[in-house]
């Protein structure tokens, strides 16, 4: 049995301006970036990667993410399987190499940007606290967000 090498996925707080400018939120309170470098990325559009990352993981993980987004964060999500939504997040904008999806709740607004280039897949998360409660709720949830983000990116790359 031959094991495929999955490119390493990195997480960082700094988001380059080339991706930050696509985020759609002025002055986000929280942002981070997941990246994976591979020579296969550019063959697949950013929207396909977004679907692979968010909709392609194991069912228990997808369900856990959906429940956390709805119950803990109160995000108003649309249909989980729709051409206009990706795992319940509305497709807000897209370009040749990127797609931005958005969701909001009574306490926060969030956007995710998936960007592909010749050798890299990037996922940037942007959160704006619209109410004080978000500043209390999001920081502990962000710990799980980082861990789940790394797992979902690795699984999508492995499946590709």
Descriptive overview:
This protein is of the alpha+beta class. It is built from four helices and eight strands; from the N terminus they run βαβααββββββα. It has helices at 17-20, 46-55, 59-72, 132-159, and strands at residues 9-12, 30-37, 81-82, 85-86, 89-94, 98-104, 108-116, 120-129. A hairpin with a 3-residue loop joins strand 6 and strand 7. The longest helix is centred in the last third of the chain and has 28 residues, at 132-159.
Descriptive terms for the model:
160 residues; alpha+beta; 8-stranded antiparallel β-sheet; globular
Could you give a quick summary of the protein structure above?
The protein has 160 residues and is of the alpha+beta class.
Biggest pleated-sheet summary: 8 strands, antiparallel
Strand order of the largest sheet: 1-2-8-7-6-5-4-3
Number of strands: 8
Element pattern in H and E: EHEHHEEEEEEH
Described by its quaternary structure, the protein is: single chain
Judged by helices, strands and strand pairing, the structural class is alpha+beta
The stretches of 5 or more residues where confidence is low (pLDDT under 50) are: none
Task: Provide mean pLDDT, rounded.
Answer: 90
The N- to C-terminal Cα distance equals: 18 Å
Give me the Rg, rounded.
Answer: 15 Å
In percent terms, what proportion of residues is strand?
25-35%
How many distinct helices? Answer: 4
Helix content: 25-40%
- The backbone outline, from C-alpha atoms, is globular
